[in-house]
Fold this sequence. Notes:
heterodimer, A: Sodium/glucose cotransporter, 2 domains, two-stranded antiparallel sheet, two-stranded antiparallel ribbon, globular, B: alpha+beta
Amino acid sequence: MSSVGNLNVVAIIMVIIVTVFTVGLAILVRRFTRTTADFYLAGRKVGTFANASAISGDYLSAASFLGVAAAVYASGLDGVWFAAGFAGGFIVVVLFIASALRRFGEYTVADFAYGRFGSNRIRLVTVVMVLLTSLFYMAPQMYGAGTTWTVLVGAGIFGLSPYNTGVLIVAAIIMFYVAVGGMKATTLNQIFQFWWLWTAMFLVVVFAFTVGNFNYPQALQEVTDEDLLDVRTVTVAQLTEVDPETGEAMIDGVRERMSDRALEPVEAAIETGDPEATVGVTLPAQNKLHTLRKMWFNEPGHRYDGLNQFSMVLALVLGTAGLPHILNRYYTNPSGQAARRSTFWVLVFIGTFYILAPIAGLAGKLIIDDAWRAGMAPENAAYVDGLLVRSDALMPTIAQILGGEWLMGAVAAGAFAAMFSTTGGLLIASASAVGHDVYEKYVNPDAPEIKRVIVGKASVLFFSLVALGIGFGIPAAGLDVAYPSLIAMMVTWAFSLGAGAFVPMLLTGIWWRQTTERGAITGMIVGGGGSLFFIIMNILNQTGRLGAEGILPFLGSLTFPTIFTFPAAVLAIIIVSKIDGQLPKNVDEIWMRIHGTASERHEKDMGTDKASGVFSSGQK
Amino acid sequence: MASSTDERIFQTTSRGVQMMHGDHIDTVESVDVVFRAQRKLSFSFAAVFFIVTLSIPAMSVWWEPWYAVEIWGGFTANYLFVSLLYYVFLWVMAYTYIKKADKLDASLGDLADEIAAKTAAEAAGGEQRG
């Protein structure tokens, strides 16, 4: 085994290869980034396949690469929904938003809001919402960077902890390559990074079928034959406390369920006599949906009750259409038709990825357990009776069992690629919100091109530092302890915010001519502000700051607020627009920009509706 | 009165606003035809999409044969659909929509040109009569 202490040398080399390629590409592309259209939109000439790959790379974050398989491993069918919902969101994009946004022909979502409703006020509200959504999405990437570095390297630099070192290094790399290469470098890197992580996931599944003798329906049957178990850390006092009604203690069930090897540390902890000593045990999972049924892997209910089943689906499906870094990518298409075709290929690319990820999660259930019982499980991860204590470690763990350090290296590099590509897109979205939407429009409208690009790059530097601060702050705020699946949870917050703040405004702005500026702003505040309120309540609830009784803990229990915030925002837009009735004076022009096809017919005649090379310079 | 966005020229005539790009013109009337047709197409597909998508959690909550009966190895209908068949549904849906939308764009483009030409001819005739 090529390891030094806890260092996995082969994996680190592969991560370095991905990093060097990423940075090298940015330096190579730098000379092709001269204008703001180049910096923010890659010159609006990204072809269908390239853009579909880049959107997929932008979209597939650490939550998809590490989180989906982990969620399936821990929760069974409820975890599979993360994959299906993430993919389904692109149908909303293609049906309602893709081509209209591209036809409108601006730079950012805030540009659309300004162009559609004609006020500076709405542009600034949109900028605030873009920044909030991007920061919520950036947080899990930074957290993923810290935790992956901890597993992979386990050592810090400059006196920092391994976690903080991972955050620092990833933030520094992304800051450099985005600031140097802009959207062109980001696009090319996202294409490369998407195919790397797709291949890594594919290889894990191929190895599961070949080396691990995995059989999908049979494996599903096998894990369902036994109860779904949760890993819990409990104190000796909790473990030995006798329930007066049943006359049994938790330890009785644990002794029946767990193997002798797994029981050894538990019995040792009990023998010490310290009631506050903690041990890891397995407990049967509760079915939150059908409370009278036992919880099995192939049934719904491990994570969500009835209301949250619907709310989760809505949050994931609607949230995709409200992610600013994904919406910005639609402006890079050469035409509205190309935007639709890109979305189809995105669905094919990420769909195949999301079919593979739950297979990896299910395979991990059996293969990791077998390896642990044979004494062959990797030592980097922690287990309780063959179950991973932290399910987020599933992908590197199963990769190491099935394919040794090379496959583990491909997966580790894939995890970093996922963080690079998504955070790169988020930095571009945040930088364009400040550099383009605020600086170019309000601070210095007459700034020369070179100055605009410099401000864009300075914005990237600033938001990289913000990302760094968020990454450092997550453990300090105790969020990593409060949420067992923090990466997936934080991504869901970003989806909820996007679904509440942007999707109602975009849908009504594109498809209902009577939408007014006041209506749209009200909808964004109701949807975005409402989502933010519920997210903060949920954080306060999870960190034990709301108590156990009353209305506040109830409000804090809602994991996905979209089921309330989305219809509330749409309703607010309709009611306020009806009362207001103040349409922009040039509403006919605006409507023509969104739905007119003269530009596309002209470009088709001229042959300029096709993509040119991403390396070419200049704008449309 | 004329204004422009990128290479698009907007012109306000006695018959309303027109958008011109090269030889092609959009009128309020032609854009309205395009918009209505696209809206019908998008909302029809969206209705199917949301009915199917929200039926899955609905059946997970209320229909036991969907979530509790194994039909192939350990696959329940619910697990099979969410882990595999839902993607086929998404691909077929997106492909069909895009084909129809592209076709609609082409036919509406021709129609928009016809409407614009007719509008221009009527305007010219009106000026001559005037």
